């Protein structure tokens, strides 16, 4: 039985846009650096960051793709608050198969970063467990309040049947 249905194919090209309603903020940057156990002074010290050529302290690069600044809903039953496609697929586990990041400039505390997710492709491929599984490719484009591209996150998830499909 094929997992990639005509209904799923119609999801390809869909977009979801999440605007930022406030600035990223110094506290978010500091908390993220603490969570990473990264003591880089660029993330907490304005004077140090200015000496290094930045207008102020900057965020660790991956904060822009991990922040919930644009959270649009309450956490789900697992506590997740970020973007999710909620594809109409039953009996599958979701496996995060990888991310490819591209950063164009450091993010600053006063940035308002919005994101637009685009579902680029869904492909059905053989599974090592037998049967097939779905590979879902999405791209998220992060823009500042001037519309300038700050970062891109290319994400792949796998929807793997709990029971091998034939």
Could you characterize what this model shows?
By secondary structure, the chain is an alpha+beta fold. It has a domain at 6-22 and 71-161: Roll (Thiol Ester Dehydrase, Chain A). 15% of the residues lie in helices and 33% in strands. Strands 1-3-4-5-2 form a 5-stranded antiparallel sheet, with no helix packed on it. The chain is elongated and about 60 Å long.
Q: Strands, helices and their partners?
A:
Elements: H1 6-9, E1 15-18, H2 26-36, H3 46-51, H4 63-66, E2 92-103, E3 114-126, E4 132-143, E5 149-161
Antiparallel strand pairs: 1-3, 2-5, 3-4, 4-5
Question: What would the average pLDDT be, to the nearest integer?
Answer: 91
CATH class of the domain at 6-22 and 71-161: Alpha Beta
Residue runs with pLDDT of under 50 for 5 or more positions: none
Identify the strand order in the major beta sheet: 1-3-4-5-2
CATH-defined fold name of the domain at 6-22 and 71-161: Thiol Ester Dehydrase, Chain A
Strand content: 25-35%
Order of helices and strands: HEHHHEEEE
**How far is the N terminus from the C terminus?**
6 Å
Just name the CATH architecture of the domain at 6-22 and 71-161: Roll
Q: What is the number of beta strands? A: 5
Alpha-beta classification = alpha+beta
User: CATH H level of the domain at 6-22 and 71-161: which superfamily?
Assistant: Hotdog Thioesterase
Q: What level of helicity do the residues show?
A: 10-25%
Helices, by number, come to: 4
Report the principal-axis shape: elongated
Rg estimate, integer Å:
19 Å
Instruction: Describe the sheet with the most strands.
Output: 5 strands, antiparallel
């Amino acid at each position: 039985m094929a997992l990639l249905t005509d209904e799923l194919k119609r999801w390809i090209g869909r977009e979801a846009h999440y605007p930022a309603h406030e600035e990223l903020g110094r506290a978010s940057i500091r908390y993220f650096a603490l969570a990473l156990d990264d003591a880089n002074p660029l993330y907490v010290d304005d004077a140090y960051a200015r000496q290094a050529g930045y207008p102020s302290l900057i965020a660790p690069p991956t904060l822009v793709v991990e922040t919930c600044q644009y959270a649009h809903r309450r956490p789900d039953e697992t506590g997740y608050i970020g973007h999710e496609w909620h594809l109409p697929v039953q009996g599958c586990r979701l496996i995060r198969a990888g991310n490819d990041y591209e950063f164009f400039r450091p993010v600053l505390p006063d940035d308002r970063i919005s994101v637009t997710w685009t579902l680029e492709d869904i492909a059905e491929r053989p599974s090592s467990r037998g049967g097939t599984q779905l590979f879902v490719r999405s791209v998220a484009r992060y823009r500042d309040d001037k519309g300038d591209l700050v970062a891109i996150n290319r994400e792949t998830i796998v929807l793997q049947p709990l029971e091998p499909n034939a």
